[in-house]
């Protein structure tokens, strides 16, 4: 079967989330199994009119239910899991239970999801307009995620990055416009009118489509050709918060949240900050200073530890050289030490004119370091790669210094084979 006329898109002109419609077509999408291994079917249902927004323009689809009542009065409530538009412009509602063509249904769109998406989408329009007016930065793409949304910007010529001062300025300007409660008005215009608006500079972009175009006007801010869902006025965006900025291939990506998402994000941030403050036994306002002090203490401790390791490695090297036969390769395996310690011991031994192989065992991990003194013709990197490679271990380095990793139980054997190879 095939659907007749393309469905009337109620979301274009009305904020109403409940509607009545007639099933015009149904088709099987796929068979799949649930977690219990039971076979499930996914159906696509077309209606003569719908308030469900299909995925598009960076905005996800609506969800909700379709309700049908049989002649006996029994009610069948079918959840709508996904909504898509096909290449012919038909809107398909994905459901788990089939509905007969010609059935009268009542549709209900999930209000919380729709409002959230409308807030983020309208917030994106506003944010993009402010970035353009304040910084001459143009939006080239938009993504509405489950937790945050983002726009990708191309900065004005000569600008290398977005400064913190610029971001704060844009955020403040966007929120002022939200508080001013500017009206958003969608309307349809003939294509030649949209073209004239674009040529005049009122529209930033002109969609590649024929026929009438839907223009969303944000009072005193912008005109935008858009088929998505929006709030009635900027005040309903409910506040906008910039979260993160990062460099991407096509420019700069700005992550943001609006409305209740901004409230939830601020709540999570505060809970995290409160938790950190509690762990540090300080007030929330003292966290930055306390963290800075801890980092400085950690750096000092790391420096002190490095010095102690060097002293201990030097002492171990002296003891090994003192107790070794003249001219023999220095060898040792240390338990509870790491690669850095093995490298330090081997390097210190070369100061006494000796070639050295030092192994370290730390739990299940093993490390081996090989070093030779200046003037020696030994190629440490080559020998270590050959010996470790034959055992399925890995390593490398230069002619003077080389190191590798292996399993803990291999260390003793590999140290011995390296000594033999030298």
Describe the structure.
- The protein has 422 residues and is an alpha+beta fold.
- It folds into 3 domains: 8-109, Elongation Factor Tu (Ef-tu), domain 3, CATH 2.40.30.130; 114-278, Threonyl-trna Synthetase, Chain A, domain 2 (Threonyl-tRNA Synthetase, Chain A, domain 2, 2-Layer Sandwich); 310-421, Roll (Diaminopimelate Epimerase, Chain A, domain 1).
- Helix content is 34%, strand content 32%.
- The protein is built from 8 helices and 21 strands.
- It has helices spanning 111-135, 164-179, 191-200, 259-280, 287-323, 339-350, 380-390, 411-421, and strands spanning 8-9, 18-33, 39-47, 49-50, 64-69, 75-80, 82-85, 91-95, 104-109, 138-144, 149-154, 184-189, 213-218, 222-225, 240-248, 251-258, 330-335, 356-362, 365-371, 394-397, 401-407.
- The strands form 5 sheets. A 7-stranded antiparallel beta sheet has the order 6-5-9-2-3-8-7. Strands 17-18-19-21-20 form a 5-stranded mixed beta sheet, with helices on both faces. A 4-stranded antiparallel beta sheet has the order 10-11-16-15.
- Strand 10 (138-144) and strand 11 form a beta hairpin.
- Helix 1 packs across helix 2 and helix 7 packs across helix 8 (411-421).
């Amino acid at each position: 079967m095939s659907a007749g006329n393309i469905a009337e898109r109620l979301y274009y002109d009305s904020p109403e989330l409940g509607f009545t419609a007639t099933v015009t077509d149904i088709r099987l999408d796929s068979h799949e199994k649930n977690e219990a291994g039971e076979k499930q079917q996914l159906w696509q249902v077309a209606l003569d009119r719908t308030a469900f927004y299909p995925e598009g323009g960076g905005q996800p689809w609506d969800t909700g239910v379709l309700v049908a009542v049989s002649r006996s009065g029994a009610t069948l409530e079918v959840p709508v899991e996904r909504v898509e538009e096909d290449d012919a412009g038909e809107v398909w509602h994905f459901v788990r239970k089939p509905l007969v063509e010609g059935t009268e249904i009542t549709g209900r769109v999930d209000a919380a999801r729709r409002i959230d998406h409308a807030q983020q989408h309208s917030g994106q329009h506003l944010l993009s307009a402010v970035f353009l007016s304040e910084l001459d930065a143009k939006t080239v793409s938009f993504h509405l995620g489950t937790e945050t949304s983002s726009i990708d910007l191309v900065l004005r010529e000569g600008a290398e990055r977005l400064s913190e001062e610029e971001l704060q300025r844009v955020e403040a300007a966007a929120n002022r416009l939200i508080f001013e409660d500017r009206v958003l008005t969608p309307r349809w215009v003939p294509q030649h009118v949209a073209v004239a608006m674009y040529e005049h500079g009122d529209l930033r972009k002109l969609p590649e489509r024929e026929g009438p175009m839907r223009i969303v006007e944000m009072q005193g801010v912008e005109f935008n050709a858009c088929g998505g869902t929006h709030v009635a006025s900027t005040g309903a965006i409910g506040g906008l918060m910039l979260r993160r900025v990062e460099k991407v291939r096509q420019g700069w990506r700005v992550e943001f949240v609006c409305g209740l998402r901004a409230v939830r994000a601020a709540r999570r941030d505060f809970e995290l900050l409160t938790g950190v403050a509690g762990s540090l036994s300080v007030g929330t306002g003292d966290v930055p200073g306390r963290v800075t002090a801890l980092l400085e203490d950690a750096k000092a401790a790391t420096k002190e530890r490095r010095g102690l390791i060097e002293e201990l490695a030097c002492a171990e090297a002296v003891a090994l050289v003192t107790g070794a036969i003249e001219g023999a390769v220095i060898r040792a395996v240390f338990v509870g030490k790491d690669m850095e310690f093995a490298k330090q011991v081997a390097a210190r031994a070369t100061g006494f004119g000796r070639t050295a192989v030092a192994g370290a065992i730390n739990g299940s991990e093993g490390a081996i370091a090989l070093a030779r003194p200046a003037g020696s013709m030994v190629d440490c990197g080559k020998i270590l790669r050959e010996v470790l490679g034959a055992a399925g271990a890995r390593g490398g380095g230069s002619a003077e210094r080389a190191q590798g990793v292996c399993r803990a139980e291999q260390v003793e054997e590999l140290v011995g084979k390296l000594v033999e190879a030298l």
